[in-house]
Structure formats: C-alpha cells, structure tokens
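Data availability excerpt. The first of two example chains:
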Amino acid sequence: MFLASAEPVDPRQLPAPFRPRSLPRRMVATARHAWVLHRRALKLAMAGVVVLAAGVGLYEARDHISTGLASATDLVQGRFASAGFGINAIEISGQRLTRERDIFALLTMGNGNSTLTYDVDKARMRLEWLQAVESASVRKVYPDRLEVAIVEREPVARWRVAGVTYLVDVQGRRIGTTDGAFGELPLVIGSGAADDAQVMIRALAQHPDLKAGIAALSRISDRRWDLIFQTGLRVQLPEQGVAQALVQLAQYQRDYRLLDRDVTVIDLRVPGLVALEPGEDAAAQIEAERKAAGKKRS
C-alpha cells in the first residue's frame, strides 16, 4: 500500500547515523572477520607455532633429558644385575678367522650388562660388520648367559698383493690376512687376481697333473694368467681359450713330460703354437750341439 504523497527516493541519499566504535570493539570485529575468512590457515599457523616452541624447549633441555635417561638406565641395569640377571658368561662358537677380542668388543658395545635389557639384534648386526663373518646369532640364556654362534665366510684362495697375503672367499672378497696358515689354498698374485681366481681354480681342478706342482697363479695386467711352478717354470696362458690351452698343456705333459724338462718358459699365448725357453743347462747343450754341427760342416 502506497501513500498518495510518496515519492521515489535513492536510499543511498538517505542520512545514516554515525556510531563510532571503540578500539577494542573494532579489533574484536576484525579478528572475527579474519577467523571466518581464514580459519584453516590460522589453525595451521597456530599448530606450527606450538610445534616450534616445543622443539625449542626440548632442544634447550636435551642435556638434562639425556642425563636423566642415562641415570634411569644405569639404575635399572644395576637392579637387574643385583637380582641375578647380570651377564656373567658369553659362549662363542664357529669362529676360526675372527679374533675373540673383536667379538667381545662388539658384544659389549653399549648393550648393557643385564640379560633382561640386552639387545641381541643390535649385537648380531655389529658382529656382521666383521669381514670374516657371513652371519651371526646371539641368544640370551636366562638368567646370566649369552650364546653366540658365528658363521664365517669360507676362504678359497690366498691373494698376495703389495706384500700382504689375504684370504679371499669365492667372490674375491677379503676375509682376513694370513701369515703362513692355510698353505693348502691356491696362491694368486697380482692386482685383480682375487676377482677372477675362482674361475682359474676351477679350470685347473680338471687337470690334477698340472695342479700338483703349481706354486702360484699370477695375474698379468688383469687380463690373463701365468702358471708359476715350484721348479721356477712359468707357463704363459692366453687371454681367451684358457681351457683349451690347459688341455693342450696336459696332453704335452702326458706325451712328452714337458713340465719336467729343463725349460723356464712355456708360451701358449698363440693358439696352436707352443714356444719354449730352455733352461741354462739345456741352452748350453743346444749351443754346444750347434758348434759341433758347425765344425762338421766346415
């Protein structure tokens, strides 16, 4: 219903009362508007501030916390030990290459002195750091004993390089040094010899007559092998076709006893060809025969 005297008016032109707000009320209103519009971001920011403050507090108190934990651990360990659960005996089996003092040092490294709190998994992992150890198991026998079983890598050869002789496993990994023990194992010499030793050892195993008199296998430029016999004889093998060269050498040994003759070098590096370097006596005899043959012709 409209009044007869009513006229259209732009509401923007109407006067509005001015009600000034106090500063606290304006701040509250602004905060409410910000919370409604940016609630998620503000919650994340507040959580970040809390985490940061907690981190700073823990960092500042780290020394006190560490001291407290250490004191508590020592107290618990001492009480367990006094109650009859202290570690009084360690039984070790399976070690032959590994020194017992190294095993004991790793077993007692920060693991406590009570069977109730001793960490066998950590002790096992430490033992498997040792070069000669393939695997290890550590078992607690209550109330006061540890049983340790060591499985070591199996040495298959001795490797001499830079004046040191190492024991190596089937993969060529060093598992310790030797000062004359394990003399029954093949001796390989030279840089890179350990990596390829097993292949050569298996090839020689097919020829017992050749293997018996060998003193060492020498790796030449990490490409091929020389067989060094106890008599000083050196047999030079080719880079490729080693198996065929060994078959040929074994045949010459059966037919002509070539390895037993007065020669210093047998060169098999060229397939199908055998070159010999005679020893001093054989060389002198050959030279004398040449001179005699020359006199007859004259």
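And the second chain:
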Amino acid sequence: MSYLDNIRTFVRVYELGSMSAAGRDLRVSPAVTSARISQLEEYLGVRLFQRTTRNLTATEQGRAFYDGAVAVLDAVDVAEAKVMHLTDTPRGTLFVAAPLGLGRRLLAPQTPEFLATYPEINLRLRLSDRAVDLTSEGLDLAFFLGQPEDSNLRIRKIADCQRVLCASPAYVARRGLPADGTALLRDGHDCLNLRYPGASEFQWLLQTSEGPRRFAVSGRYECDDGDVLTDWALAGEGVVLKPLFEVAEHLAAGRLVPVAEATPPVPVQLACLYTHRRHQDPKTRLFMEYMTARLAAALRADGVQSDRNMGDGSGADQAETPPV
C-alpha cells in the first residue's frame, strides 16, 4: 500500500501544485507528503518536481508519469468497486461538496442516518457557495443549484426549486414595494448579490410575460456566502434572490416579504454532479441514490419544489446541458 500511497500523493501534488495543499487534502503532514514524493523519485530514479522556495513545477518526467499514475489509480478504484459490489460492504471515504444553504438545511441533517446504515463509510462534507472543481479538489460528488460549466461531467437531476425575491418589511417601508424586475432597475433598488472569485457577470433571471429575461441588478452589498445575504436582507439592507427553502421560515414569520411578484425568479435546478469514474464506486452510488430521494422528498414536504419540468421525481441521470 505504501507505493500506492506515494502515487496518490504524487497525483494530488501534481494537481494542486503544492506539497502543503496536497498534504491537507490527504490529511497528512507536509513532511509526510515530501517524504512520499522523495521515496517515489528514488524508486523511479528521476526527479518528478522542480522545487524552489516559491514554486513547485512538474518536470518532463513528472508530466509523463502523471497520466500513467492516474490510470493506475483508476484501475485500482474499479477493482475495489467490483469487490465491494460482490461483498455488499461499501467502505471508504466520500468527499462531497454543496452550497452553504443547501448543505446546512437539507444535506447535513440527512447524513447521520446514511452513515449509521453504512458504518464503514466516512463522509467529508465541504460547504461553500463558490464553484468547485471535482477533479482538482478530489471530490466524489458535488450538489449544486443551477447549471455547471464543465461538460466532461455528468448530472443527476433531483428537482426544480422555486426561488423568491424578498426583502424585510423595514426595507419595503423605506424604499417602496417593487412590482416587478423593471421596477427593481428603474427605482435603483439595493440588490444583494452572491459573488465569488471567478464568478461571471451577475444577472437575475426572472419570468416575464414575454418569457424569461435577465435583469442586470446592482447594489452595494456582495458576498460569497448566501446566508450572509439573507442576514443583510433581514437587517433591511436590500432585496435578495433566494431558493424558497432557505427563506421559507422567515417568510412565514413575516421577517421577510415577497417583492417583484409580477416577475418571479425562474426555478433553479437542484442536481448532483459526478465524474464517470466515480460513479462506478458503490459508496458514491449509494450516497447519491439516498440523497436524491430524501432531498426531493424534503422539498415536496416543504412545498418548495416546482412542478415545472418534473417527471416522477426519479432524478434520472442526464448529460450536462448548457447554462440557461
């Protein structure tokens, strides 16, 4: 296993471009990471990386070794998956990502029962509203709202989630109640925007009498954490666009009120993103099936799942479609 550990370490160092980042990802110290790379270089008789105090770059030999190393690890993953299918004892660690609101409110509460059912599976849940890269971050699955950009991945659709534009009663009393998206722009309403490094230009996709239309809203407040936007809306700082499941409690209590109801937001897709290779792993398949059923049921129970474009709720796999 030590040689495989060395290969795994090399692949993560190559992909992340850093010994320390690879060590954090693999949950080992930088010293262990460096030692594994040195052992591998000694065994192969070549230098895989050029190291300086500031940079680490793969050598020609390192670049050549990477493709073969990935193929070896893929073959091991497939072999292990076949064995686990036969023994019916899925085990190992799952690395899963999700947006903050979705992860906190829907995903995390469902995980203890899954782990109790499969005691040999460990879960590493990473919550962030930024876009994630499954390959470079070593993820098995990523739950998301919207449309991904990577056409090399696969999507398991779960539901279409209703969204809502809302603000606090104090904000409406101070700035007025916008009737639609046009009023948001015309009257210069403060819109609370979700942005993160690398995000594209922000627009709100609203349903109008002529069909979906993008509104280039603006405001003084931006954040890469959706829950912070909700807090700002509650504090009376502006209008926020949120999945209904994230703010349903605040709407029911009157802490937030719907605005621009003549042009409601277009429902957003809730789905799971995975790679073709990872999908062969039984623990990955089990977790996806488990969460797909329970997240869809939770949305139906809360009345925040859209009937638009929904079939039987089975969440059949589909190829990625372009952003809309």
